[in-house]
Every structure is written in structure tokens, then in C-alpha cells.
Design brief:
The protein has three domains: 63 residues; 42 residues; 57 residues, Nucleotide Exchange Factor Grpe, Chain A, domain 2 (Roll), CATH 2.30.22.10. It is built from three helices and six strands, in the order αααββββββ.
Length: 173
């Protein structure tokens, strides 16, 4: 019996050490699980943020995808306006009929621009705004407020909520 007690006394500390060793191992594994869970959550959040940024970027690109084409189209409209102004110079009937066709095409182009949310910047007799206008000439006019647009040399346009082309204007000194 004595020998049995000795063996049990020797085994008891080993069991305690094993139990204590298992607890430490469990704590270590739990810490690893918590760390890996945190890393996984961060990676998942990073992927979600990346996806959202890409979607926002794509939406912005799609919103203004026609900008370059519309800018060229606006230049063509300017040329039609110049041609149409010739009709005011009392030209003969043949040229006048020809220019009436230009007027119809011009009207169609303006309607197309409006359908793409391109609008002319209204600046005549308005205060000069450097965000939407470029002052090309400055002259003094009596009876006009200083820094007021007195003549539009080239129309400016907005595309949705973005400046497509600034207006070139003459302002009062």
C-alpha cells in the first residue's frame, strides 16, 4: 500500500501539470483564434471598402462618360450659331432657305444637348464669376455695374453639375 500511495503521489502532480498545461494550451489557442478572427474581420472590411470605392469610381465615370464628346458637340453648335447669324444680314432667298435648314439642325443639336443635361450658362448682365467665366476683354460702360458681363463672346456650358466649358465674356470696368 505504501508503494501504491507513492505511485499515486507521483502521478497526482503530473496530472496537475497536464491539466495546467492543457489550460495554458487552451488559452494560447483561444488567443490565436481571437487574433485570426480579428485579422479576418479587418481583411473582410478592407475588401468591402475597396468594392465600395470601385463602385463609386465607376458610377462617377459613368455619370460623366460623355463629357469629351459633348464638348466637341458644343463646338459644332457654335459654328451653326455663327452660320445662322448670317441670315440676319439680309441675304438673298436661296441662302436664307439654306440657312433655315441650318436652323433646324441647330435646334435638333440643342435638344440633344438638353437631353444629356448640358445647359448654357446664363451670364449676360450678371456679375462676373471666375468659376464659370473667363474675362477676355474689359471695357468701361457708363450706367453698368463694375465687373458685370456686358457681352458673351463664347457661350459656356454646364454638364449636369460640372463645368463643361467656361463662358468667354467681356466685362465692365
Amino acid at each position: 500500500m505504501e508503494e501504491e500511495n507513492k505511485v499515486q503521489e507521483e502521478i497526482a502532480p503530473q496530472k496537475k501539470n497536464k491539466k495546467h498545461g492543457k489550460d495554458a494550451q487552451i488559452e494560447e489557442l483561444e488567443a490565436q483564434v481571437a487574433e485570426l478572427t480579428d485579422k479576418c474581420a479587418r481583411a473582410q472590411a478592407e475588401v468591402i471598402n475597396f468594392k465600395r470605392r470601385k463602385e463609386d469610381e465607376t458610377a462617377l465615370r459613368l455619370k460623366y462618360c460623355n463629357e469629351e464628346l459633348l464638348l466637341k458637340f458644343v463646338g459644332v453648335c457654335d459654328n451653326f450659331e455663327r452660320a445662322i447669324k448670317m441670315d440676319d444680314q439680309n441675304l438673298d432667298d436661296e441662302v436664307s432657305k439654306f440657312l433655315s435648314g441650318f436652323k433646324m439642325m441647330y435646334t435638333n443639336m440643342v435638344d440633344i444637348l438638353k437631353s444629356y443635361e448640358v445647359v448654357e450658362i446664363d451670364c449676360l448682365d450678371k456679375p462676373f464669376d471666375s468659376n464659370f467665366m473667363e474675362a477676355i476683354l474689359v471695357e468701361h460702360y457708363d450706367g453698368k455695374d463694375p465687373h458685370t458681363v456686358v457681352e458673351v463672346l463664347q457661350k459656356g456650358y454646364m454638364y449636369k453639375d460640372k463645368l463643361l466649358r467656361p463662358a468667354m465674356v467681356k466685362i465692365n470696368d
